[in-house]
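Entry for alpha-D-glucopyranose complex. Fields follow.
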Amino acid sequence: MKPSDSTLSAWFTDARFGMFIHWGLYAIPARGEWARGSEQIPDEAYRTFAGEFAPDRFDPVAWAAIAKKAGMKYVVMTAKHHDGFCLFDSKFTDFKATNTPAKRDLVREYVEAFRAAGIKVGLYYSLLDWNHPDYPIDRLHPLRSDEAAKAQPREFSRYQDYLHNQVREILTNYGTIDLLWFDFSYDKLSDEAWRATELVKMIRSLQPNILLNNRLVAGHANVSHAGELGDITTPEQLIPEEGVRKPDGSLAVWEACMTLNNSWGYNRHDHSYKSATQVIRMLAECVSKGGNLLLNVGPTARGEIPDDSIRILDEVGRWLQRNGDSIYGCTIAPFPKPEWGRYTFNVAAKKVFAHMLERQMAPFNLPNMKGKVTRPRWLEDGSEIKINQPWNIAESAPHLCLDVSGWQLPNPHDTVISLNLV
Ligand code: GLC
């Protein structure tokens, strides 16, 4: 059975909200996870960070509690990022957490803590590897200006073996992994350059129920569906206008991944955080278009999720406690987007959720919904909203008008009205 079958992806499309964790040696320079590449940091200089990586405040149980309180249902952490450093204890490299002062298999502790909290567990694995001696020195590589390094022979097939071996390790040594998140294909390095067909076969045989993202064939700007080589399409830092569709026009399983500030890896200088309101609205937008939101945190070198991130996530979680019915298990509604906000829809419960994001200077109406929905209620407290016919809207108009008094939004993040589909 192929995991793209909707039964196997049901947990994922129900979950709707996940936590992305970018953590690695790059938390020490603290200028984002691309530092080694964009600043062309030489090998020896970068390796000194491994000698000082001692995350004394790392507490994955606390991380899982933060995710849970935020209402996140799944998590994806960087087992290895582009810098090649492995948070897991790999047999195939010495550039790993167990060889640092941390002396711990951080992936094992992470998997165990989140699993125990009832959160589905995913691993991110970078296809790029700026540490492996056989990875090509291309336009993104930190040694791209180093003529001596470029003159050294490199044998890409050895890197392919390494990649396959490590994927086998992370899917063998940590029990059930619910989601594998590759990053990313570019230039000629795509698809069979990774020996993708063989790799996917191995992945499916080791973890038959795993979901796989699309980046064995796609770059981070590519929102096309991966066909047989991936189950989840992963638009990055954007929510596509109409969600993501397969070539036959049906809805793809998709997930927008977003940073909370502007960085994935910890960046001490980036204080440009989104507000809780923005996050809540992003989440409602994804769900209204049939997708998920994977929201990132970048823990510090000492192993803590930054306070600003925790504060925002807590607020999102408080909103979700009362309004989660309009998010979890929901998807595109059978009505066009209204001017004042968005709709989400729970198919099984036949419930439509009206997310009121703006208060129009007019009676509050659901355009063309007269006779199509009943029983309007404020979702947050279950209280009744009266249906009324205001004097200034023609009785013949097909609108369903609700008695929503006051010009302020009752909940400035997103006020949700639940309705039963007739
Ligand atoms: C990009 C970046 C990477 C980040 C990822 C998350 O592909 O290269 O640093 O991990 O996006 O989607």
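NOTE: The CA atoms of residues 20 and 169 lie 21 Å apart.
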